[in-house]
Amino acid sequence: MLTHVRALVTLVRAGVIRPMGPRGLSGAARGYAHWDITLAWGYATGAARHPDRPAIIDDEGTLTYAQVDERTTRLANALRAEPKQRVAILCRNHRGVIETMTACVKIGASTVLLNTGLSAAQVAKVLEEQNVALVVADPEFRDIVGHDNIIWTDELDDLIDKAPATPLPRRPPRGRLIVLTSGTTGAPKGAQRPEPASLLPAAALLSRIPLRHGEVIAIPAPLFHTWGLAAFQIGLVLGATLVLRRKFDPEQTLQDVEDRNCTTMFVVPVMLQRMLEVGKRPKLRIIASSGSALPPPVATRTLAEFGPVLYNLYGSTEVSWASIATPDELARRPGTAGRPPIGTRVAIVDESGKPLPPGRTGRIFVGNEMLFEGYTNGGNKEVLHGLMSTGDLGYRDDDDLLYVAGRDDEMIVSGGENVYPREVEDLLAALPGVREVAVVGVSDDEFGQRLAAYVVCSSEITADHIREHVKANLARFSVPRDVVFLDALPRNATGKVLKRQLHP
């Protein structure tokens, strides 16, 4: 009960729940009765409450809430002519992604969001595994997608213009939103995302990230990824204007923030790092980061140069969110993942499932309203007392702040000692001249396993300098014997380092 009261207060404070005129109130009620709490409800409500407000600004121009609502109804009618049970989307960030997803909701079709970094073979495998009936894709992926039924996004406007705006019946039994896992340690899997049963998930994020109704949100984070998707969904709840670009360019993103008077930006850490290398510093109220580990030096520099505006969310495709670090917490503890938002529980347990005290590293389990519904191949994550495993190791400090030590399958045992690559990565990332770093475990005949460091430098640094720095700050088992210098780290389309591609 207390959680729901706090959620209500949070939603009122954010302006999500506020006084409305008769038109807005009836529109919101009709939208909910027709579409439940879905993307379709969001645009139907927006069309009633603020029809002329810009909903999407992208490379093609501007669409208002009323226009998106009508266009997605037309697109849904076009797709209904030949029912599709499962639709895959392979697109950059633009209106076509949002309109296709919303139209699929209106006809009850499941949507599969494809990573734009997949190879042709990976796309073919996913399309087969997910039993996809239709693919909506950007023309640039013509050589990647092989399917009998494809709509290219440069054809969408013509399809929408020719389709009727006939009102649709109440949504049929809901389809599923399927997001692919990052695939950094293996083949990507389809994760079935739940639809929110209430506004409590939105309240959870808003309880730690003070977003407000009517924000103008730049979203360079990919929409096919859980974090970009979350930015879109929370933005819709807030009646926000979403500013999108097909491809990320750090200077262009910062210019968009300035030109479009953006108040908020959703990024993945590598994007933030690239923007810090650009001189422009437009004023922002919130920078929200997630999707991979935020290096402490990047957090510290962002706070110094943009001000106290940085929020860092720790979560995963499977558990959605676990914790959020605020600017004040990041200023005091740059490496922290923060605290759980309202309605969220986090437990640190040992191998037997027993809770661990502060300072002890263990497995991280999370409980909230948006745990995923399982992989499409029938697999699932381990669940303990209603909490789901994130697959990570971490600990809490005496102030109850959470820290992530790394993936549980990345921890190595070297000479009988537990060694965490993330600890070494954070240390080296703060070393002057180091631009990027990844640390992995490799086999060792003497110690069982040892660490290898892959470093991208902006100035000349020697392997001995790297080793001496680690030796001076961490235990001897954390010193990487192998130090490999690279021009860039291999990353996927969401900016996560592909450690399986690193070999000493």
Give structural notes:
The protein is of the alpha/beta class and 504 residues long. Among the domains are: 23-195, ANL, N-terminal domain (Rossmann fold); 410-501, 2-Layer Sandwich (GMP Synthetase, Chain A, domain 3). Helix content is 31%, strand content 24%. The chain is built from 15 helices and 24 strands. The chain has helices spanning 2-14, 22-35, 39-49, 65-80, 95-107, 120-129, 156-162, 200-206, 226-237, 250-259, 269-276, 296-306, 327-332, 421-429, 463-473, and strands at residues 54-58, 61-64, 86-90, 110-113, 134-137, 150-152, 177-180, 190-193, 216-218, 241-243, 264-267, 286-289, 310-316, 320-325, 345-349, 362-367, 383-384, 387-396, 402-407, 412-414, 417-419, 434-444, 448-457, 482-485. An eight-stranded mixed β-sheet has the order 2-1-10-9-11-12-13-14, with helices on both faces. Strands 6-5-3-4-7-8 form a six-stranded mixed β-sheet, with helices on one face. β1 and β2 form a beta hairpin. α3 (39-49) packs across α4 and α4 packs across α5. It is globular. The N and C termini lie far apart (54 Å).
Tell me about the largest β-sheet. Answer: 8 strands, mixed
Provide the CATH architecture of the domain at 23-195: 3-Layer(aba) Sandwich
Structural class: alpha/beta
Strand content: 15-25%
Q: What's the count of strands? A: 24
Global shape: globular
Helix share of residues?
25-40%
Mean pLDDT: 93
What's the N-to-C terminus distance? Answer: 54 Å
Going by CATH, the homologous superfamily of the domain at 23-195 would be ANL, N-terminal domain
Strand order of the largest sheet: 2-1-10-9-11-12-13-14
* Broad CATH class of the domain at 23-195: Alpha Beta
Count of individual helical segments: 15
Gyration radius, rounded: 23 Å
According to CATH, the fold-level topology of the domain at 23-195 is Rossmann fold
Unreliable runs, pLDDT <50, ≥5 residues?
A: none
